[in-house]
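Customer escalation, tier 2.

The customer says the design service returned an amino acid string that "doesn't look like it belongs to this structure." They asked us to rerun it and document both sides in this ticket. The original structure tokens are below, unchanged.
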């Protein structure tokens, strides 16, 4: 059902603009998904923190292949189903995950709703301070 909704939205955008529209995955929700799934994947909180630091840095630069390879080779998995879900999510949305650092430097927004930003930072604290 969700895939069908995504397809309908893409077709409507094509009808409105007359060309295929590039869809960009919202940074706030991407980090939220990473945090949620890594909480169930990592064997403990300290490993989760280490893994998230690396994964967020990679997806911030649009390096999804690096993030997927890291998940496959460096993470000791507690929940195999959630690990597969995260890899599948990154693979499915790879074309929608851009270099958010370049976008930020260009002064463009990275969130779908301004309410996700407070004083230039994401409400869950995921905004990288430098790259």
């Amino acid at each position: 059902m969700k895939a069908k909704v995504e397809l309908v939205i893409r077709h409507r955008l094509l009808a409105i603009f007359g060309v295929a529209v590039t869809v960009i995955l919202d940074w706030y929700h991407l980090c939220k998904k990473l945090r949620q799934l890594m909480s169930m994947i990592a064997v403990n909180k300290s490993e989760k923190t280490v893994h998230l630091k690396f994964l967020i840095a990679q997806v911030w630069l649009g390096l999804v292949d690096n993030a997927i390879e890291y998940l496959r080779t460096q993470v000791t998995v507690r929940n195999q189903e959630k690990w597969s879900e995260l890899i599948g999510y990154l693979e499915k949305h790879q074309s929608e995950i851009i270099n958010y650092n370049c976008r930020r430097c260009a002064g463009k927004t990275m969130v779908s709703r301004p309410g996700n930003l407070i004083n230039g930072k994401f409400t869950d604290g995921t905004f990288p301070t430098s790259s």
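Tier 2 assessment: The sequence is consistent with the input. The two ends are 38 Å apart (CA to CA). Confidence is low (pLDDT under 50) at residues 116-125. Sent an explanation to the customer and offered a walkthrough call.
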